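Design a sequence for this backbone.
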């Protein structure tokens, strides 16, 4: 049975995954919008517009971001949420902080913050389960 901290982490993880999925869907619409702009022929005007090549580069960047988004969703699910669901809290501790730091560097700020909070809860649960409340070994208490 999961304690309160591990249960909170188990709740925060799918919320972060759902937010990542929402950002992923928004990214898909951005790529579709850019693709639509690439197919539209424009009438020459006196204002400066981005060239087709620039739109292509932007589309490649967004496509790469979408691929990374799929990777984050999968890693979060399999390395954190699934382990918490199976009550393997200790095994979820390290992947949760490593993935959060990397994700925050690459732009997943809101899900990253949620999962850092989840990592704190996982860590608290692991320490409490090992008798390490306040970092005092059990033989000293």
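Sequence:
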């Amino acid at each position: 049975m999961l304690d309160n901290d591990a249960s909170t982490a188990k709740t925060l993880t799918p919320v972060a995954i759902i937010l990542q999925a929402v950002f992923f869907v928004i990214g898909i619409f951005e790529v579709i919008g850019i693709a639509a702009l690439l197919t539209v022929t424009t009438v020459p005007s006196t204002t400066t517009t981005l060239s087709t090549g620039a739109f292509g580069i932007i589309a490649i960047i967004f496509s790469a971001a979408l691929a990374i988004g799929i990777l984050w969703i999968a890693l979060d699910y399999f390395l954190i949420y699934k382990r918490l669901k199976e009550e393997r809290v200790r095994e979820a501790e390290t992947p949760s902080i490593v993935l959060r730091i990397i994700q925050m560097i690459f732009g997943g700020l809101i899900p990253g913050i949620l999962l850092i909070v989840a990592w704190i809860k996982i860590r608290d649960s692991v320490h409490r389960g090992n008798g390490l409340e306040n970092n005092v070994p059990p033989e000293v208490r």
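Helices lie at 4-39, 52-85, 89-105, 109-129.
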